[in-house]
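Issue 218. Parser rejects a valid record. Input:
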Amino acid sequence: MPRYRLDIEYDGTRYAGWQRQAGPPSVQAALEQAILKFSGETVTLRAAGRTDSGVHATGQVAHIDLEKAWSNDKVRDAVNAHLRLATEAVSVTAARRVSDAFDARFSATARHYLYRILNRRAHPSLEKDRTWWVPAPLDAAAMHEAARHLLGRHDFTTFRSSQCQANSPVRTLDRLDVTRTGDLIEVRTSARSFLHNQVRSMVGTLKRVGEGGWSAADVKAALEAKDRAACAGIAPPEGLYLTKVDYGDVDYSPDA
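Output the parser choked on:
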């Protein structure tokens, strides 16, 4: 069966997350329905990351197996046509035939997230549901300095949801940078994999530093506590974006 990699973007505001579930709309269900309309096939998408309710993506990756071989452009354009007809806030930015060795989840070597904070007194109009509005001044430089304590391989129990199903709380954080451009603060982070709510928990904690309530030493102590109760807070989902997934240098083309 031909396998296709799909690169996907979506506004997560109206969805209960990526994963298909009974009742609430999901990104996965929207895509699977569009694929059914296009191909006549019932498929199950496997994604690189199961984003939560309200979380967005500019670089989500998923794969599907179809019985019939189609051109890459046909898959992309036909799926998008049905997504538009259904007025979904989802689009396939690229489709690519890949080998059976490619797995959107397990072949991934790194995942990259962006968190956006709108830091100004005026509430957002154009950026509503796409940033976390924080009206009180934040010190982005202090947030960046505190973030240094979270880099590397650690037990991130403090920064994962109590509902997290990962077998181990140990992860290696490769990047956690905080920058400011005007009123916009951006937190960019990268790792091979993340725990449930890890990024939002780290951002919520760094926000406490930015407003002067915590020091960098407090962040270090919270990490070392290995206790969810030590987390300073969790950022809301609307500021979070899955921006990119890496797959290393392996050639996953069908003829590889």
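Fixed in the parser; the record now loads. The two ends are 16 Å apart (CA to CA).
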